[in-house]
């Protein structure tokens, strides 16, 4: 099994006759594979747990809105209680989001371990007479690709469907009140 995975992963590195070009092509393909597998994992985890995430987000907004209403009513005790609960709900929502992000990057350690086995100690030329190690090149390509693909995931059929579901869930949620609304009539 290990030989099959290695053969599959090394194939893009052999597409170019030039070793440096082959390294960059192969590393780009590996980074894109990590992004696709990570994004699919994140979306699957979100689908499985979306009711929980929606509940956490709704509770955070509800408690925030209660704290804004309490301040508006001049009830300091109610504000402190609601704000404490809002902060607790924010923490839960924040760490749920952090957990989802972690799901999206699970392929990275495996890719880096494979790269280490293949390219440990090899200097990879970059601009000019400079050279770096495999991990710097891989992580740079991965991060740049992640930023670029963030704009385009919604156009890919599976990922676009999940993105639409997320937007629909967000649209159904009560909107948080802004602190700048305090004291404004009709808001």
From TrEMBL:
Keywords: Membrane, Transmembrane, Transmembrane helix. The chain crosses the membrane at residues 20-42, 94-116, 136-154. This is Uncharacterized protein. It comes from Solidesulfovibrio magneticus str. Maddingley MBC34. The keyword Transmembrane applies.
């Amino acid at each position: 099994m290990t030989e099959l995975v290695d053969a599959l992963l090394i194939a893009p590195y052999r597409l170019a006759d030039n070793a440096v070009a082959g390294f960059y092509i192969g590393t780009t393909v590996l980074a894109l594979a990590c992004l696709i597998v990570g994004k699919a994992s994140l979306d699957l985890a979100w689908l499985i747990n979306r009711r929980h995430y929606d509940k956490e987000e709704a509770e955070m907004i509800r408690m925030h809105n209660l704290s804004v209403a309490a301040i508006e009513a001049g009830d300091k005790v109610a504000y402190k209680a609601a704000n404490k609960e809002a902060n607790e709900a924010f923490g839960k929502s924040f760490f749920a989001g952090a957990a989802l992000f972690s799901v999206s990057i699970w392929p990275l350690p495996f890719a880096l371990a494979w790269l280490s086995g293949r390219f440990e100690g090899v200097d990879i030329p970059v601009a000019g007479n400079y050279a770096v190690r495999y991990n710097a090149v891989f992580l740079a390509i991965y991060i740049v690709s992640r930023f670029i693909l963030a704009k385009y995931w919604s156009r890919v059929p599976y990922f676009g469907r999940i993105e639409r579901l997320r937007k629909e869930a967000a649209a159904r949620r009560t909107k948080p009140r802004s602190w700048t609304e305090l004291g404004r009539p009709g808001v």
